[in-house]
Amino acid sequence: MKLSVPGRLSTAALVAGVTVVATLLATGPMAGAAPARSSVTAPLPAAAPDIPVANVQAHLSQLQSIATANGGNRAHGRTGYQASLNYVKGKLDAAGFTTSVQQFTSGGRTGYNLIADWPGGDLNQVVMAGSHLDSVTAGAGINDNGSGSAAVLETALAVSRAQLQPTKHLRFAWWGAEELGMVGSRTYVNSLSTANRAKISGYLNFDMIGSPNPGYFVYDDDPAIEKVFKDYFAGINISTEIETEGDGRSDHAPFKNAGIPVGGLFSGADYLKTSAQAAKWGGTVGQPFDRCYHSSCDTTANISATALDRNSDALAHAVWTLSS
Ligand code: DTR
Ligand code: CA
Ligand code: ZN
Ligand code: ZN
Predict the structure, then answer these.
(1) Residue 30 pLDDT > 60, yes or no?
(2) Is ligand 1 within 6 A of the CB of residue 182?
(3) Residue 138 lies in a domain
(4) Domain carrying residue 316
(5) What secondary structure does DSSP assign to 145-162, as a single string?
(6) 243 is catalytic
(7) Residues around ligand 2, an ion, CB closer than 5 A
């Protein structure tokens, strides 16, 4: 359960507050006394809201239905990927985001990235959160990577519900053709001018965050971003480990190679959970974190709702914190 924290005070409210205090001092019993220091201090950065895991799971159900209706997958260059992108884009357009679709070709097929900007914030300081939307051809790709895509989508929708006014500019992304070698994210980074790359203060990646036999792994590429995630999990008494198997294995790699600070979360793939890990996280020793990795059984049944919930809330916390 997260405490509800009032959102950021608007400037008008702040001015009104100062005006009221000033008026009371000028006319009340304190009149003529040395002016008191303003009792209004700068508002604390608003705390992120709880991300309803039921909402995230509803997105996963939609992605599952899309795969089922499109040959069983949501892979690059197939109709299931296009339908997945249309679903996510429709939610974002309705929520007030400025969306754009970036087209590219890979393996003789056309691929697409979806970029969604939240209007406002300093365009010279852009905080990005992203995930790959494509699956492998073997299946629906619900944990890999519907989980990351749905959590990033629901966090973006939470930004809209809150009408967040962050100091920095927020941009969200859903990448195509990650499974072919981070093709979509590399296309995006390569398309940026040097000046526009420099404006990205951080990129947060979420690829497999609902594994059924979950671990809680935090990317250690940038210490400041890593600390935001580790502090969050410490606050809910969940141990974390440094993510060690993924260097270069997901969409943060092109950003890191361009010198952009990166971070992210991962709940594990085909590696086996050790007894030490099971002692702190529960689950099954000697089994993969996700036994359906890149398989047809990567369906909505292949998700730990607890891991999905915790990682979605950590994602929102990082977005709110790093953009404040
Ligand atoms: N390459 C990702 C899965 C993956 C494997 N190891 C890591 C580490 C960090 C993030 C992702 C991954 C995929 O198959 O999509
Ligand atoms: Ca939650
Ligand atoms: Zn994969
Ligand atoms: Zn993946």
Answers:
(1) no
(2) no
(3) yes
(4) 19-323
(5) IIHHHHHHHHHHHHHHHH
(6) no
(7) 50-51, 309, 313
